[in-house]
Amino acid sequence: MPNRTWEKKNWPLQCSSWPVFSRPRPNNAGHGGVAIIINPANNVFIQRRTDLEKDSVEAICASVITECNLKFLLITAYIPPNETSQMTDLLEIIKSADCDHVVITGDLNAKSPDWNNASLNESGKILE
Q: Which of 7, 65, 70, 114 would staple 13 via disulfide (CB 3.0–4.6 Å)?
């Protein structure tokens, strides 16, 4: 699940025959962007949740149902360092999803001793 795709709006990310949900960085910046790439060999149902995505957060959301009927929300995000408002908005997405299980991947730039980091920053405090 890439969290820096370098995708541009006029040059969409593609990955052979694998389905791709992607979101380039706003303003066609050409760097950054997030994506979820699905291996078609996996027996999962995955549906993009654009209703949860916000312009204020570089994140992509998808509902996943596995072959054994495990349901969860998958979020891949990039939160720039010291952008605590984006971390707060990411948590709002999670709360609004009404989902019992959430998996977050990406580069959140959140530091906390709770996940074996020597320091604690504001994004880490928010995520804790």
A: 7
